[in-house]
Specification:
14% of the residues lie in helices and 34% in strands. It is α/β, with parallel strands linked by helices.
């Protein structure tokens, strides 16, 4: 059984039969107990796509006292060294405990993650999105679209079971461009919007 659990903003957990994946944990109002998401008798893999405070909360390190945990962090995150920390750069791949993680370059900061575990593939885009801002120059927006499509196209032909993709209303009438392109271009079974700042109307 696979279960996707929404935490807040871009924070999600994916529960498989044998493990728990936690992505971009964010809980500014401290309404969510991360220990309840983790499972004591399952390995937990915590991913941080980049260092922005709405994606990286140091509370994730509380799990060290509670369960078997590994941290897979974008290399722009400064969290020191430890045997349970793996830093990943864009366009690199890493395998830990049989879990394969590929990193894509974000169009903002850090990276997106493609994770293969227990025979399923999970994509968490982080801030890899088509950030077309109406107030930016035509040149900026054209390059943004080009960069986003180029990174997303790297996933063509890969069956993705669960995808988490930004859907940000601050982009006004362009808010859907990134998710729409991914859904039309990639082989995604289930997609969840994220980074929508609690505007569920989107």
């Amino acid at each position: 059984m696979i279960k996707a659990e929404y935490i807040e903003h871009s924070g999600f957990a994916v529960h498989t039969d044998n493990a728990v994946l936690i992505f971009d944990y964010y809980d500014p109002k401290r309404r969510h107990d991360i220990k309840k998401t983790a499972v004591k008798n399952k390995p937990v893999y915590v991913f941080v796509s980049h260092s922005h405070p709405d994606h990286y909360d140091k509370k994730i390190f509380d799990l060290r006292k509670y369960c078997k945990v590994k941290y897979i962090l974008s290399d722009d995150v400064k969290a020191g060294n430890g045997s349970d920390i793996i830093y990943l750069k864009p366009d690199n791949e890493y395998t830990v405990d049989g879990v394969t993680v590929k990193a894509l370059k974000s169009t903002d900061e850090g990276c997106a993650f493609l994770v293969n575990i227990d025979g399923i593939t999970v994509y968490h885009a982080g801030d890899l999105n088509w950030w077309h801002w109406n107030g930016e120059s035509e040149e900026y927006n054209r390059q943004m679209g080009k960069d986003y499509c180029a990174e997303t196209d790297k996933l063509k032909g890969i069956p993705i079971d669960i995808a988490f993709i930004p859907l940000d209303g601050r982009l006004e009438d362009k808010y859907l461009w990134g998710m729409d392109y991914a859904m039309k271009t990639l082989d995604i079974k289930k997609a969840f919007p994220m980074h929508f700042w609690n505007d569920f109307s989107l």
